[in-house]
Amino acid sequence: KAVLTDTAANAAAAGFSLEALEARLILAEIQLGSGKAVGAKAQLATLEREARARGYGYIVERAQQAAAKN
Length: 70
Known about the structure:
Layout: H1 2-13, H2 17-33, H3 37-54, H4 57-69
């Protein structure tokens, strides 16, 4: 989890928004799987908005699918 958090932060700082969003999506999916649904769903909603604003439809779809699972 710490590696993904670092990856997301480093990718965002370097201007790699897609990679940062993907890392954050994986973190939210892990949270969902470990019983932290409330926090994960909040993260997924934020991810969905950011991905939509940047035109990353694939991330929007994955965030929606993950949120719908639980």
